[in-house]
Amino acid sequence: MTQNSSTPVASRALALDALRGLAILAMLLSGQMPFDANALPSWMYHAQEPPPTFQFNASLPGISWVDLVFPFFLFSMGAAFPLALSRRMENKTAPWKLFLFVAERGFLLGFFALFVQLIRPYTMNNHPMTATWLVALLGFLILFPILTRLPEAWPRVVKFSIRAAGWLAAILFCAFTVYPDGSGFSLVRSDIIIIVLTNMAVFGSLVWMFTRENLTLRLGLLGIVFAIRLSNLPTPTDGWVHDLWRASPLPWIYQLYYLQYLCIVIPGTIAGDLILQWTRRDAVQKISGAKKWPLAHCAAILLTMIALVLVTLIGLKGRWLIETTLLDFALCFIGWMLLQHPLDETEKLFQKLFNWAIYWLVLGLVFEPWEGGIKKDHPTLSYYFVTSGLAICVFIGFSILIEVWRQKRWLALLIDNGQNPMIAYAGINNFITPVLALVGADKLLTHFATTPWRGFWKGAIVTLLMALTVSFLTRRKIFWRT
User: Fold this and answer.
1) How far apart are CA 463 and CA 346, in angstroms?
2) Is 385 among the domain residues?
3) How many domains does the chain have?
4) CB atoms within 10 A of CB 95
5) What's residue 234's pLDDT?
6) How far apart are CA 200 and CA 118, in angstroms?
7) CA angle 64, 13, 295 (to 5 degrees)
8) Nearest Cα to Cα of residue 11 among 197, 265, 327, 278
9) What is the pLDDT, as a whole number, of residue 104?
């Protein structure tokens, strides 16, 4: 039976994929920067770890572009929950199956956090040799049978055999790996970024599932998380809230401390609800047609979104607080005016999203003086909300390029990587770096990177090679389930 051509097919939020792709590739690029005395300007690094010493300074306020990548990824994760879970809930999937789905995702991410740290070349050997590079490649390949989404049409016994072979190989790898200090596999040796994502995948999903039809309740839960966070930093007082903040039955995988990032994920879920509504209404609209804003009008909106990101980053990093706040308020007003009187579903989405962006950004700017100024480490209240607002601005900008100007190809590399982010995350250290070392290209790149900015271009080349690899796999429908 063929599908009726008049049946609307929900649009995919490619701008959300692009936002996630931007976050993961910028994260990889930031890790490739030259970290030595001949360093780049401070705005090319985490604001709290400036050159030339790169020593962590918790009292240093400000954020850089590097400090946006993690919250952008968290925001896009939260926005994806409604898109990933709504169909399951609307199809009356049994609650236990929904919880099993969420638990399975959390388990896979938890395993990934442990295994990806285990297989990194410089974790296995401080001075990697040929054998180290080959073992690192083997560890990367082991992840494919475990995490790759296998075709539904394949026989169940075949899929089970592939999964079992992958898990057996992973267990053997963990059992026989020995670190330079003589230790072996340990639950406390893990990737902290993925551990946080694991907590957000589980608790963020549960928050959305229980509040998907009650925004007030969701904002109420955000308020509780906010209050717990506020009660513990910067000068916590002893008591049950502080004890709860620090207590954990499984500290290697869960701490209540991690749940402060729900202050980014929950705003993401609110945006995700709006995006989900748009995907359905836009599919119907594409059949009926509708008027749209002129391209020049959309260009003005795009420039406003870019200006908001740049002004906020530059102003908060340079500590021009009054000027930055006034300029941001002015840009918010200009954006709000430009987004009045939407003509189609996409423009209505922009308007609704930007209203939330204004709220989060203003809230973050008002909190900026608290805790000594905005910081990524340790994350401040201002940081959660400023970055949430900026994430929406970037999403709107990407949406204009993709949905309005129909220039998907401009963002194709970001979209492909955003649909397959964990391959990129693991592959930069366990595929690109080993391959370059084995063929001798790493020496050529090292000889090239004789100045700070050449070091940047070296990192950009390595990141681009990873991005192209992920794009190749994505276009051949090879996805990891995480």
Assistant:
1) 32
2) yes
3) 1
4) 10
5) 58
6) 22
7) 80
8) 278
9) 94
- Does residue 314 come out as left (phi exceeding 0), alpha (psi in the -120 to 50 range) or beta? alpha
SS3 assignment, position 190: coil
Q: What DSSP state is assigned to residue 12?
A: P
What percentage of the chain exceeds 70 in pLDDT?
95
pLDDT in tens, 11-67: 678 999 999 999 999 999 999 999 886 789 999 999 999 998 899 999 999 999 999
- CA gap 163, 171 in Å, rounded: 12
Residues making up the chain, counted from first to last: 482
Determine, yes or no, domain membership for 154.
yes
Q: Give the whole-angstrom CA distance, residue 466 versus residue 244.
A: 41
5 located within any domain: no
- Residue 55 to residue 65: CA distance in whole angstroms: 18
Instruction: Give the position of tokens 């968290």.
Output: 74
Question: What residues make up the domain containing 409?
Answer: 14-281+292-475
3-state secondary structure (DSSP) of residue 42: helix
Assess if residue 7 is contained within a domain: no
Q: Which residue has the tokens 């020995």?
A: 178
Q: Is 480 helix (H, G, I), strand (E, B) or coil?
A: strand
DSSP 293-355: --HHHHHHHHHHHHHHHHHHHHHHHHT-HHHHHHHHHHHHHHHHHHTSS--SHHHHHHHHHHH
- Residue 234 C-alpha from the chain's centroid: 26
Whether the pLDDT of residue 287 is over 80: the answer is no
pLDDT digits (tens, 9 = 90+) for 438-447: 999 999 999 9
pLDDT tens-digit readout, 13-29: 899 999 999 999 999 99
As a whole number of angstroms, the distance between CA 309 and CA 306 comes to: 5
- Is the separation of the CB atoms in 169 and 162 below 8 Å? no
Give the integer Cα–Cα distance in Å for 366 and 418.
32
If you average pLDDT over residues 91-100, what whole number do you get? 88
Q: What six digits make up the tokens of 102?
A: 């969420």
8 A C-beta contact, residue 51 and residue 456: no
